[in-house]
């Protein structure tokens, strides 16, 4: 895609979140990196399987092989190792836009983020940025400041800043709700983010890629974030502050483009990239459940529910979170011994942890769409404010139960009543009707327009807006005969 399509209204770029963990102008750029140490290699080897489990596992096949080859090519530019094979590059089976790297030569990107990119140079830019964090030892510097260092423990509390403050019970509940949400992201300082950007640009240049790709991929990510806000009905293009790791992206985009300008141009390899990702799974994996509008449906667990109006969902490998300004919730499961009351009390106890004994004020039994259910509420004091914590559980079999944990301001838990009452068991026919989406590379033909191609997008709403963002097309951009574009279709 021509560069001009991504250089529009930089000052108006929407805030970026949930993706690159990054760095640039706050520190001196190292001329060479210290090679991977034995301790770092051991640390990475221990964390690697945990990260794969958290983000849906590593994908295999030709798309994963392609991403691995690009990742190893750019990672070796860092000086962390002299051989590309020293780096383990994983394409993660996750529908969340994310990428990260950890000490020891482990580099990761989700398939969803890869699908958003326009060319190989952008893929190299994202992975190079993440490797830049490792090369600059940013996580070690954070550890020296007594901050948590691992990906699985580094997320800010999802709810504590909004509803629960920084009390022990607030931290405990919010960290519990984070499990499986895939919102776990290393959070670096702005100077570290900018430095990782600059290191990534350096790696792009030395590898022969177009260094402007760092700026263009950041722009695409911001556009995607704005689109998701629009589709989810949020009033602005920012995710809640608890999930934001990238303040002021407009200046970050412009800074990246400015840094790249004196380096000239290089290879983008758009055609090779599109061939490499053709057929890539897009959006939710049915094995992890899918979100369709305000409905969540899991064909393997045979369940479905609907989020309340004004809330949006984020699907993870082990849980699905429901988020809004008036509360947050999460659906997950735990070990079930056949007694729903005991199950609900156990979830409250787990939420309280060692910080506070948390018990419901009362427990009630009910039936929801034929499912035995039980629920309880606990009011938690947090300084001058109070919140309500609700656990609502459903029995699907003698040894299987699922439950919502919801947190709202005191007296506001009824905002989730419709969701609690929407839980139901789906039929085998409904389960079989859930077909995954994938990326299809389409060559524009004579007579094609943005509108006509967009009609092929496998969505019931926002087809053209989704198509434009996916292909970095501005509001007035058109398609040209012979040009290759990405379309999201149902798997063939």
From TrEMBL:
Signal peptide residues on this chain, from the entry's feature table: 1-25
Cofactor(s) required, per the database record: Zn(2+)
GO terms, biological process: proteolysis involved in protein catabolic process
Alphabetical list of PANTHER family matching this protein: METALLOENDOPEPTIDASE OMA1, METALLOENDOPEPTIDASE OMA1, MITOCHONDRIAL
Molecular function terms from GO: metal ion binding; metalloendopeptidase activity
Protein name per Swiss-Prot or TrEMBL: Putative Zn-dependent protease
Keyword field: Hydrolase, Metal-binding, Metalloprotease, Protease, Signal, Zinc
GO CC annotation terms, alphabetical: membrane
């Amino acid at each position: 895609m021509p560069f001009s399509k991504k250089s529009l209204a930089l000052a108006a770029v929407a805030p970026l979140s949930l993706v690159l963990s990054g760095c640039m102008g706050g520190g001196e750029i190292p001329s060479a990196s210290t090679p991977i140490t034995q301790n770092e290699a051991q640390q990475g080897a221990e964390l690697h399987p945990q990260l794969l489990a958290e983000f849906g596992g590593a994908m295999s096949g030709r798309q994963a092989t392609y991403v691995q080859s690009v990742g190893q090519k750019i990672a070796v530019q860092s000086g962390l190792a002299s051989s590309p094979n020293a780096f383990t590059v994983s394409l993660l089976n996750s529908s969340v836009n994310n990428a990260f790297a950890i000490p020891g030569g482990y580099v990761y990107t989700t398939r969803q983020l890869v699908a958003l990119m326009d060319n190989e140079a952008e893929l190299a830019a994202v992975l190079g940025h993440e490797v830049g964090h490792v090369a600059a030892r940013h996580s070690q510097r954070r550890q020296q400041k007594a901050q948590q260092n691992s990906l699985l423990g580094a997320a800010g509390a999802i709810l504590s800043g909004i509803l629960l403050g920084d009390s022990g019970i607030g931290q405990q509940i919010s960290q519990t709700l984070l499990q499986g949400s895939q919102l776990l992201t290393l959070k670096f300082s702005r100077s570290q983010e900018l430095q990782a950007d600059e290191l990534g640009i350096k790696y792009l240049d030395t590898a022969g890629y177009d260094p402007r790709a760092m700026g263009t991929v950041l722009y695409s990510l911001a556009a995607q974030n704005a689109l998701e806000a629009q589709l989810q009905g949020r009033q602005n293009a920012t995710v809640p502050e608890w999930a934001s790791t990238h303040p002021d992206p407009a200046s970050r985009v412009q800074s990246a483009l400015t840094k790249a300008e004196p380096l000239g141009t290089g290879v983008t390899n758009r055609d090779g990239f599109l061939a490499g990702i053709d057929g890539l799974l897009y959006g939710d994996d049915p094995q992890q459940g899918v979100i369709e509008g305000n409905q969540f449906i899991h064909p393997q667990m045979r369940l479905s529910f609907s989020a309340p109006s004004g809330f949006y969902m984020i699907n993870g490998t082990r849980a699905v979170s429901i988020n809004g300004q008036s509360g947050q919730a999460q659906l997950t499961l735990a070990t079930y011994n056949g007694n729903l009351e005991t199950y609900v009390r156990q979830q409250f106890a787990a939420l309280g942890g060692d910080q506070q004994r948390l018990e419901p004020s009362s427990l009630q039994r009910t039936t929801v769409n034929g499912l035995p259910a039980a629920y309880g509420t606990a009011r938690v004091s947090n300084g001058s404010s109070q919140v309500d914590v609700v656990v609502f559980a459903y029995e699907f079999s003698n040894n299987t139960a699922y439950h919502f944990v919801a947190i709202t301001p005191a007296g506001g838990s009824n905002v989730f009543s419709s969701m609690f009452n929407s839980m139901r068991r789906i039929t085998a026919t409904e389960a079989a009707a859930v077909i995954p989406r994938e990326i299809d590379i389409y060559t524009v033909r004579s007579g094609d327009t943005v509108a006509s191609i967009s009609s092929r997008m496998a969505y019931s709403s926002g087809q053209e807006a989704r198509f434009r963002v996916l292909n970095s097309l501005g509001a007035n951009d058109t398609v040209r005969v012979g040009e290759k574009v990405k379309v999201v279709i149902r798997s063939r």
